[in-house]
Give the backbone structure.
Amino acid sequence: MACEIDEVEMKLVLSAEAADAVEAAGLFSSDVRIVKQHAIYFDTPDQALLKAGLSLRIRRSGDKRIQTIKADGSAAGVFVRPEWEQDVEDDLPVLDDTTPVPSLLGKQAASIAPIFIVENERRVWNEDGIEIALDRGRIVAGEREEAVCEIELEQKGSDLSALFALARRIDAVAPVHLGVLSKAQRGYRLRGRVPKATKAAPITLTETMSAADAFKVIAEGCIRQFRLNAPLIEANEDPAALHQARVALRRLRTALSIH
């Protein structure tokens, strides 16, 4: 039976050299636990799960397999999202009524199949109510693959401000950037066309929002637009991505000036 919980985590993207520096800095006092992980992600041929705002994976660590279904709930580097977890015996998804899949997909659920994999070595520390996971690995979708090097800070009893405080301590040791894409989202992008420059997404504000809440929504959109374009600039010096990154920064400066 799947158990529904709310996951709150911050994702930091960094280079392999920066990851080595963070690990060598002695920031974390607890003992490290090293886990080899192999995850298979599933969807229908027309990506019905993605369209429904869900991701489905089965992750193997040693002899244990855990199926996880996550709902989309990402902002600018901070992910707050419902998820349904359960142990499974093999690499076949269990899609019973304790998960949202049957009610959302109906008969389409029968066509769910593997679409990409994530191979990963994870180093895990637990510090004052925060689980720190340093991931090094790769995403493989058909003949295409992409390296993964990131740190996930997951709330396990601390308040949200503690995640930001720890992120600043890590950034003081080696440069990190807010990650705005989950591994699942990166896998889908790898399966699709080569990523292009990302324009500003529509922002929804309501009359009942406070100024602080409105600024949060606007700032999240600006940071997300900037971070999605940054890799294209670094890898290819893409002029369209550079233009959109500048647009994101101009929008953020404007928001800061009026709030």
